């Protein structure tokens, strides 16, 4: 069950969402930080089962069909696009949905509402007027808190992936390192000491940020940035596409194959086998020497079983022909 869901009431009212729809969208908005991305013919979507919604949001509904109808309502409101596989619902956020957690200037965290004209200034408490303390609350006191801009930069603190803790060391993350999942805003604040490109419009910024942050999470050190690295990342984007290269780069850092570990997840390895790592990312697999040998043995067993079955069938067919001679 998800413990905390933060709702942007300003946008919910603006978009005409009721309380249930706003609650669901607040949850859905944070899902790309931990749900599995799925590549389809229409692009990248994220897996989100109806059962998962009822499990995480028991206050919303306990009926999967009701959860799906609410998802359809969000799609009709222009906030998400829905798709599906044979066994799971897929979604992705629309451009309109990005406004849920942005300032008017495009940066994250919704701005403080403008002050009303004629609003009385909050009365300060000082030793000169102690008797005034405890009187009727004025506008701006706890009955109407002053920090009305407490919308979190990530919808859910429990499921967001803050990749850096207070000590400056990489924090533990529960899922795929998606430092940037939209083309306009980074998911987390990029550390100032990260080497490499800082311009978010740069061709290699997105893939480098994912690779570098995932690398530091694994090795507690930044990877080296130089002209060769920039060229390799550019080739990676050209081969896999700008919409998925950064996902594959982050997934590559989860590989525990001995040959890759000896080279500390060098970009040479990623670029040399880019299509292979892309397949592993799409399927959610991480293939190393051990898993490859297991797959080889399994395939050999299947082949042997098929050959045995064919031999039995051939004997039966030969017996049937002899019976009617």
Give an overview in words.
The protein contains 11 helices and 4 strands; from the N terminus they run ααββααββααααααα. Strands 1-2-4-3 form a 4-stranded antiparallel β-sheet, with helices on one face. Strand 1 and strand 2 form a beta hairpin. About 23% of the residues have low confidence.
Order of helices and strands: HHEEHHEEHHHHHHH
Q: How does the overall form come out from the CA principal axes?
A: flat
Spatial arrangement of strands, main beta sheet: 1-2-4-3
Query: What number is the mean pLDDT?
Result: 75
Tell me the radius of gyration: 27 Å
Give the % helix: 40-55%
Task: Give the N-to-C terminal Cα separation.
Answer: 71 Å
Low-confidence stretches: 110-185
Helical stretch tally: 11
How would a textbook summarize the main sheet? Answer: 4 strands, antiparallel
- Helix/strand-derived category reads mainly alpha
How large is the share of residues in beta strands? 5-15%
Report the strand count.
Answer: 4
Quick synopsis:
This protein is mostly helical and 325 residues long. It has helices at residues 9-14, 19-30, 50-56, 64-76, 205-219, 227-240, 245-252, 258-262, 267-272, 274-283, 289-323; strands at residues 37-40, 43-47, 80-84, 89-93.
Features:
4 strands; 11 helices; Arc Repressor Mutant, subunit A; 4-stranded antiparallel sheet; mainly alpha; 325 residues; single chain
């Amino acid at each position: 069950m998800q413990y905390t869901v933060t709702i942007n009431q300003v946008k919910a009212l603006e978009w005409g969402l009721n309380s249930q729809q706003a609650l669901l969208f607040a949850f859905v908005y944070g899902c790309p930080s931990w749900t599995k991305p799925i590549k389809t013919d229409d692009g990248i979507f994220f897996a989100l089962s109806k059962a998962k919604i009822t499990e995480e949001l028991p206050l919303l509904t306990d009926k999967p069909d009701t959860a799906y109808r609410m998802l359809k309502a969000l799609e009709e409101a222009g906030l998400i696009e829905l798709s599906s596989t044979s066994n799971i619902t897929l979604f992705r956020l629309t451009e309109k949905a990005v406004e849920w957690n942005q300032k008017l200037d495009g940066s994250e965290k919704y701005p403080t509402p403008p002050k009303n004209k004629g609003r009385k200034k909050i009365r300060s408490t000082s030793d000169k007027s102690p008797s005034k303390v405890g009187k009727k609350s004025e506008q701006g006191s706890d009955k109407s808190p002053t920090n009305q801009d407490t919308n979190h930069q990530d919808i859910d603190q429990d499921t967001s992936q803050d990749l850096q803790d207070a000590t400056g060391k990489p924090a533990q993350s529960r899922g795929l390192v998606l430092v940037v999942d939209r083309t306009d805003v980074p998911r987390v604040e990029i550390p100032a000491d990260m080497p490499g490109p800082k311009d978010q419009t740069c061709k290699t910024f997105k893939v480098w940020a994912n690779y570098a942050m995932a690398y530091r999470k694994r090795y507690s050190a930044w990877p080296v940035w130089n002209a060769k690295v920039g060229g390799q990342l550019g080739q990676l984007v050209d081969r896999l596409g700008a919409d998925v290269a950064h996902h594959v780069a982050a997934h590559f850092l989860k590989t525990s194959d001995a040959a890759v570990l000896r080279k500390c997840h060098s970009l040479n390895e990623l670029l040399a086998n880019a299509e292979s790592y892309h397949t592993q990312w799409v399927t959610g697999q991480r293939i190393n020497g051990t898993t490859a040998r297991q797959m080889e043995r399994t395939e050999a067993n299947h082949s042997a079983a098929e050959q045995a079955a064919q031999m039995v069938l051939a004997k039966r067919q030969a017996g049937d022909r002899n019976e009617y001679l």
